[in-house]
Specification:
10 helices; mainly alpha
């Protein structure tokens, strides 16, 4: 009596899948694009807004060194990145609130939310330096300020009151430095936009007096 080894192995694998409560036929089926996208959004790291920060900084550097076309191109790209990341973040907060708020009080992922504030402020800085859009910069600053207050108190309060806390070696990492940087960026945007608004109004007033 001959035994087909391949057939026996397939039966063993099938019985193993069934013991785990998984139908064998489902193992061969690739996951849909929607499923993969939903899983990606569910586990999306809040620090992805660092991309907005980095792109904005490079664009401003290009503008200050005379590379106007590159600065403008990077700025438009950054606006697109900003809109996409905000859309995904809002969707994640609505569709996966447990994961979203768990990250908010997680010592490793929580500081990543500060990049949202810093990214919004850097984009506002771009609007002033590259395009001279004071209104857009002011709007982004008005967005960044309540986010700064909300994330600061929510994150640090959550870290303080939650029962399970990691050790110092496990809980502190380089990403925590953003908690100092983002405050400075918010203040810089407010100061710079305010100074430029004042300068602009003074120029308008001088023209009025000259007429």
């Amino acid at each position: 009596m001959s035994i087909d080894v391949n057939e026996t192995g397939a039966e063993d694998r099938a019985s193993g899948f069934e013991s785990l409560g998984v139908r064998p036929g489902l193992q061969a089926q690739p996951e849909s694009v929607a499923t993969n996208l939903a899983a990606g959004v569910q586990h999306m790291h809040p620090a992805y807004f660092a991309m907005v920060m980095a792109t904005g900084i490079v664009a401003i550097g290009c503008q200050l060194t005379g590379l106007r076309l590159i600065a403008a191109a990077l700025s438009y790209l950054n606006i697109g990145i900003f809109v996409v990341l905000w859309s995904l973040t809002i969707f994640r907060a609505i569709a996966f609130p447990r994961d979203f708020f768990h990250d908010l009080i997680d010592h490793k992922r929580g500081p990543g939310f500060f990049t949202i504030v810093a990214g919004s402020s850097v984009l506002g800085r771009q609007q002033v330096i590259i395009f001279g859009h004071y209104t857009a910069a002011t709007a982004l600053w008005l967005l960044a300020v309540p986010l700064w207050a909300g994330f600061t108190y929510a994150i640090f309060t959550g870290f303080t009151v939650k029962e399970d806390k990691p050790s110092l070696a496990e809980g502190i990492h380089g990403g925590w430095l953003i908690s100092f940087v983002y405050v400075a960026i918010v203040a810089w945007v407010a100061t710079f936009a305010g100074l430029l608004w004042t300068a602009k109004n003074l120029r308008v007033a001088k023209k009025g007096v000259a007429l």
